[in-house]
Structures are given as C-alpha cells and as structure tokens.
Predict the 3D structure of the following.
Amino acid sequence: MTDPHEDKTRPQAPQTTPIDSDPSDIEPPLLELEEAAQDADPPVEPKAKPVKTKRPGRALAAWALLISLAAAGGVGYIYYELIQSSPVEDIQAQLKLAREERSSVRTRLSTLDQQQKEALEALERDQNRRLNDLERSLVASLGEVVNQGPPSEREWKLAEVEYLLRIANHRVLMERDAPTARDLLGAADGILNELDDFSLHQVRARLADEIVALSLVPDGDIQGIYLQLEAIKGMLRALKEKRPAYLSETVAPQAADQPWQEVLIRELKSLFQLNRLSDGVKPLLTPDESTYLELNLRLKLEQAQLAALKGDQIVFNESIEGAVDMMLDYFDQHDESVLTAVTQLQEVGTFEVAAPLPDIAGSLRALLQVRRGGQ
C-alpha cells in the first residue's frame, strides 16, 4: 500500500520533451507541480548544531598584546634604573671624576717618563766617564810599557833570589825542613855575591844570620821520618807472628817394686797430657785478632807521622814506643823482617821533631824593600 499523501508530497519527475517542441506544451505540468506543493504539508527539517569556527587572528592579536606589555615593562624598568636610581647629577659627577683621574694618570706618566729619561742620561754620562778613565789608564800603562826596556840582568837575578827565599821560608814553616832551607839560603847568598852590589849589603847580612841559625838546629828530617814510617807500614803484612813453644814434661824413672796404687795413678795420668807454655810467650792469635793487631800497629804509626808533621814530640815518642812493644810481644823476634822493622822504629824514635826553628823571613823583607827602591 502506498501513502495517499505520498503522491502529493513527492514531486514527479518531469517528462522530457524534445527540444524542438513548443514551450507552451511545458507550462501545464509546472503549474500542476506548484499547486501540489502548496497543498502538501511543509517538510520538517532537523535542527543542526552550530559549529564554532576558530579565528586565528584573535590569538595572534593576544600574543602581540602580551609581548608589547612585556617590552613596555622592561623599558620602564631600565628607565627607572637609569634615571630614578642613578640621577643625572651622579652620572655627571662620576664622569667628571673619571676625567680627573685620567688627567692625573697622564700627568704621572709624563713625570715618570721625564725621571726615567733623566736617569738614563745620568747613567750614560757615568759610563762615558768610566770609559774615558779606563782609556786614559790603558794609554798610560801602554806608554809605561813602551818606555820601559827589557828587564836587566840585575832584575832577573834579584827575582831569582826572591824565589829562593820564598821556597826556604815554605820549607821551614810547612815542612820543618831546616837542612833544605839552609841550602836554599846559601844559593841565594851566592847569587847576591855575584851581583857585587853594596845596596844589597843588608840582605846578605840577614842571610848570614839565618844560615847560622839553621845550622844550629838539630838534624831532623821530617820528610825522611814520614817516609820511613810509611815504609814500615808496608812491611806489616810480611811480619811473622810468634808461635808458642811447648816444653816436654820430664818423666821420672820407674821403680820395679812400686805398689799397685802408684802404678794405677801413673797409668791414669798417662791418659792426659798437660803442656806448659814457655815464659813470656802469648797464646796464638785468632785470624780476627791478627787483623786487629795489624790495624792497631798501622794506627800507631800514623799517629807518629801526624805528630812529626805537627812537631809534637811527646805523642811522637809514645806512638813509636807503643808500636815497638806490640811488635816484640806478638811477632817472632828471630825473623829477619821483624828485626828490621823494630830496628828502624827505634832509630826513628831518636829524632827530635819539636826542635825550635828560627825565623828566616828577615832576608826576604829586606830584599823586597830593595826591589821597591827603599834603599
């Protein structure tokens, strides 16, 4: 079944007519359609929800407004800091103070430059003065050298005499070698005798007194004593130590009719052997004790050498006597090397190392006075 109103509300499709048909033929159907539409109830249209459309222009305007407000606030803060917090007068005062300080610094720099310039000029003048003085001194020295001729034979001989006198003083003061010093003074006097110069009379007089004073000194060759003690130290390893000698015990003759008790005692004694050391002989030393003995002997001899160089007669004699006693106690007196070492030590111990030596510097002072033109 069909709705009776359906024919009234649904428009029917217009019938197609050919193009070349008359327009009057089309009008009646259109009129009928208009009347049917008026007679039908109007259709109810559903209400559509309103759609909100986004407008981008308003958001941009809002952001621009916020940025403008922030910029205005920053400008206001800067204005407040520059103008309200630091007034213009303070800024001008600070600028004025800065200008004054700059001017003061420039003034100081100019003053320092002037002082430095003056100091450099003074230093240059001083150096020029010193160079001029040195130049004049050099020229004067060269002039003296040019004007002076070669040393004469007299000057050469006086220089040789001065050298001999200095060596003689060294021998007396440092080595206590009176014989060598006496020979050196004699050689210097011989050179002065060859010159035959009366201005050297005082020098020769002093030399004569000093030669006589050295001749009265006991002959004590300190260098020879030192070398002899050094040679004895080299012999210590070759010295033969003393060996203990054992004495055999005398056995009494046995009687035939001895009681058995004595025979038993005699047999028991034969199981043991007792040896007595000879009188004055010390027991055999161990290897360590032999080494210590050699070191002690070297120490004694070195003490004697040092005492001879220092002129200490007491220490010298005690050191020599101690070394001799140790050799006699611990070394074989029948050995040739031991006898030689003991004999040399006893001979060295007779020397006087503390003999007073005269002052022989008078002749040297007199000679220097002559050479400087004092006489």
About this structure: Strands lie at 246-247, 276-277. Residues 1-31 have pLDDT under 50 and may be disordered. The longest helix spans residues 88-147. The chain has three domains: 65-149, 153-217+359-371, 220-246+281-355.
